[in-house]
Fold:
Amino acid sequence: MAPRSIWNGAIAFGAVTVPIKVYGAVEDKQVHFRQVHLNDGASIAYRLVDPSTGDEVPRDEVVKGFEVAPGEWVEVTNDELKAVEQPARKAIEIEEFVPGDEIDPVFYDKAYNLGVQKGAESGYAVLAKALEKTDRVGIGRVVLRQREQVVAVHAVDGALRMHTMHAPDEVLSGDDIDVQEPSKKPGDREVKMAMTLVGSLEADFDPSRYSDTYRDRVLEIVKRKAEGEEIEAPKVERAEPTDDLLAALQASVDAMKSDGKKKSAKKKKS
Structure:
């Protein structure tokens, strides 16, 4: 079944406008559970309760509040929130093109695939090709669900993809993480050995090799439970730091070399 577009609009950069269609780029495949009553399987209903009294609160008495000081709240109505909403401009307005490798992936949020409307195929193809050849990403703004958002548009295999982006103050700096310096600096032999190990594990990225094994295991447990089997959680051993780092690196490199020889021998036999 062909995907349905979320909305139709355009990409605008300079004096160029390319009509496009916006589609979701990912599909939720996670295993979802429902909270039910153990005795009869009935779905659990949630009620609005005042924690200070335990009394149920009618929904029409619940308002949006923002705490401006300890214990001091400002009520904001839905009509007042509409005052900050942006008009639904159906255009991705590109403001600049930046080198793709300068964008830390942590800034990327939700992904959308961009299709093309009839008659705009040439402009779409030209933009995709230009982004590919220059390795640039278009940064701009678009209004999604009445909220203006910063987005990034880049080319992927001849097509265009858009990511909404986190604001700078939403991204936490790595400098805030407590990473203690080792008692002694890494030795040249250790670093070279680690580089050799990294090189032996080099490969082109193929997402098909990284399926969601957790989901598969959860579904397997559900199947076994449905068949009446008792499930016992395995004991998890705590990971301990390697005592002899150089020896561990050497053993890893030797194992990779041995594995490579075995694969080469199998190819020759075949």
